[in-house]
Hints:
Layout: E1 2-7, E2 12-21, E3 24-34, H1 41-59, E4 63-67, H2 75-94, E5 98-102, H3 104-112, H4 119-129, H5 139-161
Parallel strand pairs: 1-4, 4-5
Antiparallel strand pairs: 1-2, 2-3
Amino acid sequence: MRVLGIDPGIASTGWGLVELQRGKLKPLVYDTICTAPETEMQERILSITHAVEKVIHEHSPDSVSIEDIFFLRNVSSAIPVAKVIGAILHLTSLQQISFACYTPLQIKLAITGMGKASKQQVAQMVAFLLGMKEGKALNHTSDALAAAVCHIHTAQGLQGTRV
């Protein structure tokens, strides 16, 4: 199973490809897509979707796992992120790749066992689960890898319930 995890953002979108091989999680590639604040929204979203499309074509994931939107007070900051999520989900649908969206709480629970885990705790656990040196995958990339691992854990759990 090969899952492309995505942590969407208009300024920075993290992505990471994780593969489950013989019961072991393996990080294949990961990076962050950055856009400039002075660039128009339409161009930023297009740049992000083109970069994700390139990753999909180069690495052929079986599915995409995306961190869903979360906001407490500032709805206006969530709107650009929602637009990025919509563009990526549209892209994956056109590519006929299955996708799943997980809330930050679901991802934190799947990775650390605690829904209120800090970003640092999630990053440390991602590094541990994927056999990476801590700090190698930072911020958005670490969150994207966490989304991929969350989906793999969830899919394994669902397979177990069908027996």
